[in-house]
Design a protein that fits this description.
Number of strands: 14
Structural class: alpha/beta
Shape: globular
Distance between the termini: 34 Å
Length: 503
C-alpha cells in the first residue's frame, strides 16, 4: 500500500470484515479516525517492527477491537489504542495469551476471550479494574483461578461458555462477585456448586446452559433480594427442583422471580438420535448422509457424547465418503466430521487408527483442495498429540514429506499455521526419536529455518516451539540445527518484544 492513504480512508470510522484470517497492513496505524474494528479474527502488525516505526500515530478514537489474535496483543500495540473500551481476543490452539498485557488498557470495560487453552497469569495478576462485562468462551480455566474473576471490583456481567476445566466442584470464597448482575454459566462438568450469602449479592439474572450434572443451585440464592430470573436450558431434574425451591422461598418474602425451564436433560434422547443417525448414514441418499455428518458433529459437542458403538459405525462410512470426488460437499462434510471425532476421547482415536485413518489422511496432504488438506493436517496433529505411541505411528506413516511440502509460497496462511502447529506436535522431544525416524526429522530443519522468518504470529510461535523440541534431540539433530544458520534470527527474536517466541 502507498505511504499516503487515500483521503476517504483517513476519515473511515468503522470497518467490519466477516473473515477469520485478516492480516492488517501497517497503514492501519495511520487511520486515526477509526472508532470500531470488527473481524472474525485479525492480526495486527507490530508498529515498532514495520515501515511506520518512528511515526507516533495513536488510534485515540478507537473504542472497539474484535477479534484480535493473541500473538498480536503486545505492549506496543495496546499503547497505540489507549482509549479502547471493548476488546475481543482470539487465542488459537497452543497460543501464549499474554493476559498481563491487558494492564495497558486502563479504559477497557468489555472483554471477550475465546479459545484460551492454558490460563497463565502471575500471582498478582488482576484484570483491568474498569471491566464491567467479561466473556470467556472455550477457555480452559480451573475453578481455583475464578477467584481472579470473582475479585474484579466493577464486574456486572459474566458469561462462562464452556470455559472451565473438568473439576466437578466450585466453591466460592466469601465476598466474591459482589457487584455481578448477570451470570451465564455453561459447563458439562460442574456437579457441586457452593456459595454463601456474601456472594452474588446484586445478582438479577442467572442462566444455566447444559449444566446437566449440576446437583443444585446454591441454596444461598434464596437470600438474593435482587434476583429476578433463573433460566435453565438442559438442566438436571435436581437443578430444576432447586430453582423451584428458591422461587418458593423468594415468594415467601414477597419477591416475584421467574423460573424458566427450556429443556430438561434426558439421557435416553441420545439413543433415539443415534438410531436415526445410523439410518441416515447407511442410506444411499447423499443429502441424508450429509445431514448425518452434521448431526454427529453437533452430538459430539453435547452434554452426553455419542457412544463408542456409534463412532465405530461412522468412521468406516466417513472414509468411504472421503473417496467421493464426485460429491465435494459430502467429501468435506466427512473430513470435518473426522476432525471433530479426533478431538474426542482416546477411544475415538483408537477407532480412527484401527480403521486405517492415518495413511488416508497422509494421502490427503497432497490434495489440491485446501479444505481437505487443512482437515487432514488437523486430524493427524490431534492423533499425534494423544501420546508418544500415536506420534510414532503418524511419523512412521511417512507424514513429514507431504507435510513439509505445505511450506511454499502458494500455501494459504491459515493452512501454513495449522501445518506448523502439527509439525511442532510431531517433533515433541519425549521419548527420543527412534533411529528410523531421525533422518525424517532432520529434513524438517530447513523448512523451519524459513518459517522463523515469517511475520504471522501463530506460524512463528509453532516454528520456534518445534526448534525448541529438536534441541533436546540426538547430537546429530542438534548439529543439523546449528548448521542451518538459525542463530541470527533467534537472537533477533530474543531481543524482540515477542517474548513468547523465545526458545
Amino acid at each position: 500500500m502507498p505511504k499516503t492513504l487515500p483521503d476517504f480512508l483517513g476519515y473511515l470510522q468503522t470497518l467490519i470484515v466477516d473473515s477469520d484470517d485478516v492480516h492488517l497492513p501497517e497503514e492501519i496505524w495511520r487511520m486515526t479516525q477509526l472508532r470500531h474494528l470488527l473481524f472474525g479474527k485479525c492480526y495486527l502488525p507490530c508498529p515498532t517492527r514495520s515501515p511506520i516505526a518512528g511515526e507516533n500515530f495513536v488510534l485515540g478514537n478507537l473504542l472497539t477491537l474484535s477479534k484480535v489474535s493473541s500473538p498480536s496483543c503486545t505492549k506496543e500495540v495496546f499503547e497505540r489504542v489507549p482509549n479502547l473500551k471493548k476488546l475481543g481476543l482470539y487465542s488459537g490452539y497452543f497460543d501464549e495469551t499474554p493476559l498481563g498485557i491487558l494492564v495497558n488498557l486502563p479504559q477497557l470495560e468489555n472483554l471477550k476471550i475465546r479459545g484460551l487453552e492454558r490460563f497463565r497469569a502471575s500471582v498478582n495478576f488482576t484484570f483491568p479494574a474498569n471491566i464491567k462485562k467479561l466473556t470467556l468462551e472455550s477457555c480452559k480455566i480451573a475453578w481455583k483461578h475464578m477467584t481472579i474473576v470473582g475479585s474484579m471490583p466493577n464486574l456486572e456481567v459474566l458469561k462462562l461458555l464452556d470455559s472451565v476445566t473438568w473439576s466437578p466442584e466450585w466453591e466460592l470464597p466469601k465476598g466474591e462477585f459482589c457487584k455481578l448482575k448477570f451470570l451465564l454459566l455453561e459447563t458439562k462438568f460442574l456437579v457441586h456448586w457452593r456459595a454463601n450469602n456474601t456472594n452474588f449479592t446484586c445478582l438479577e439474572c442467572l442462566k444455566l446452559r447444559g449444566c446437566s450434572k449440576l446437583k443444585e443451585i446454591p441454596p444461598s440464592f434464596k437470600d438474593i433480594q435482587t434476583l429476578q430470573i433463573i433460566d435453565l436450558d438442559d438442566a438436571s431434574p435436581s437443578a430444576v427442583i432447586s430453582a423451584e425451591l428458591i422461587q418458593e422461598e423468594q415468594e415467601n418474602f414477597g419477591n416475584d422471580i421467574q423460573v424458566r425451564v427450556k429443556r430438561q436433560f434426558n439421557l435416553p434422547e441420545n439413543k433415539e438420535l443415534e438410531a436415526e443417525l445410523i439410518a441416515k448414514l447407511e442410506s444411499n441418499d447423499d443429502e441424508l448422509q450429509i445431514s448425518a455428518c452434521s448431526q454427529l458433529r453437533w452430538l459430539i459437542n453435547e452434554i452426553k457424547p455419542p457412544s463408542k458403538g456409534l463412532i465405530s459405525r461412522f468412521v468406516p462410512r466417513l472414509l468411504e465418503f472421503l473417496d467421493r470426488d464426485d460429491h465435494p460437499q459430502l467429501q468435506l462434510e466427512a473430513a470435518e466430521t473426522m476432525e471433530k471425532i479426533s478431538i474426542g476421547p482416546v477411544d475415538n482415536i483408537n477407532i480412527l487408527i484401527e480403521q486405517g485413518t492415518i495413511p488416508i489422511m497422509v494421502n490427503f496432504l497432497s490434495s489440491p483442495k485446501d479444505e481437505l488438506r487443512e482437515r487432514a493436517i488437523e486430524v493427524l496433529g490431534k492423533i499425534a498429540s494423544e501420546s508418544a505411541k500415536y506420534r510414532h505411528l503418524v511419523l512412521s506413516s511417512g507424514v513429514l514429506t507431504p507435510l513439509l511440502a505445505q511450506f511454499n509460497d502458494k500455501t494459504k496462511q491459515y493452512i501454513m499455521a495449522v501445518a506448523t502447529r502439527t509439525l511442532s506436535i510431531l517433533l515433541i522431544r519425549k521419548p527420543p526419536f527412534e533411529q528410523d525416524i531421525t533422518e525424517q526429522v532432520k529434513s524438517a530443519i530447513r523448512p523451519l529455518a524459513h518459517l522463523i522468518l515469517e511475520n504471522d504470529g501463530a506460524v512463528l510461535w509453532h516454528a520456534c516451539e518445534a526448534l525448541f523440541c529438536l534441541t533436546f534431540g540426538k547430537t546429530d539433530i542438534k548439529q543439523a540445527v546449528i548448521d542451518a544458520g538459525l542463530f541470527p534470527r533467534l537472537v533477533e527474536l530474543l531481543l524482540s518484544v515477542k517474548k513468547s517466541y523465545l526458545i
